[in-house]
Design brief:
Length: 261
């Protein structure tokens, strides 16, 4: 048995930038254990699997360690592959998901816009081990949504952070977002998820489901420009629209091949 596999870099227009994701089109679902093994073998932050439906596609995402509830960059990569490699003719794709509802991706030129649920963060207590794990850099505010969400004074605080991934892996959360106002953009961020097998994620769409409502309120505007300042860098054009967030970015195909099962 063979299944096709693609790899694309999301939230970038340059190869080897943004966040790489593997994309596997399926005619029917593989056993969960097999999909998890494929994701572990790929050793990327996310591997996306999708099956065509009457209305669009059903989509699932796996890290090297577990199935995740929501992933932005792998959704963008999947849409990019469906549009550019699989001949999808309409400008809109609907993805059904188990835990995040219906996600919509619209293609305009060479840019894709994701329509995702907004997940505003709320104030939380700093859990034991998080401050040490983040390098003992004290934040201005501690919040939480799905992930812990730490706010800092400036972009240098985020860029200079050297986390202890072994300590962060013990925190009871999918990941840890760190963020601050940007110098040339509205805000910057980084995202650490060592408990999921992803020490630092290069560009994280799901984190922006919380970043966008937070910074929209703080800055008093609904349209925002963001950078995730990982070593690969990612650029997002964002908008808060009621209880939804829009994230736009580019993608480039890196690889295509076959998996032999």
């Amino acid at each position: 048995m063979t299944i096709p596999i693609y790899q694309a870099d999301a939230f970038t227009s340059q190869l080897f930038g943004g966040n790489p994701a593997a994309v596997c089109p399926l005619t029917e679902w593989l056993p969960d254990e097999t999909m998890q093994k494929i994701a572990a073998e790929n050793n990327l932050a996310e591997t996306a699997f999708f099956v065509k439906t009457d209305q669009g596609y059903y989509l699932r995402w796996f890290t090297p360690e577990l199935e995740i509830d929501l992933c932005g960059h792998a959704t963008l990569a999947t849409a990019h592959i469906i549009f550019t490699e699989l001949g999808h003719a309409q400008p809109v794709i609907h993805f059904d998901t188990q835990k995040a509802g219906t996600l919509i991706v619209t293609k305009t030129g060479d840019r894709y816009t994701l329509d995702f649920p907004s997940r505003p963060p709320y104030f939380a207590e700093m859990p034991e081990g998080l401050l040490e794990g983040i390098g003992n850099k004290i934040p201005k505010a501690v919040l939480r949504s799905r992930d812990y969400f730490l706010v800092y004074e400036n972009e240098e605080d985020i860029a200079e952070m050297v986390p202890n991934h072994a300590l962060l892996a013990k925190i009871d959360a999918i990941g840890i977002i760190v963020t601050a106002p940007g110098k040339t953009v509205d805000f910057v961020s980084r995202f650490f998820a060592p408990a999921c097998g992803v020490p630092e994620d290069p560009v994280t769409g799901s984190a922006h489901c919380s970043l966008i409502p937070y910074w929209a309120e703080k800055l008093g505007k609904n349209k925002l420009h963001a950078y995730q300042i990982s070593s690969r860098h990612g650029e997002l054009w964002c908008e808060l629209r009621d209880d939804r967030v829009l994230m736009s970015g580019n993608a480039v195909t890196y690889m295509k091949g076959e998996i032999y099962l």
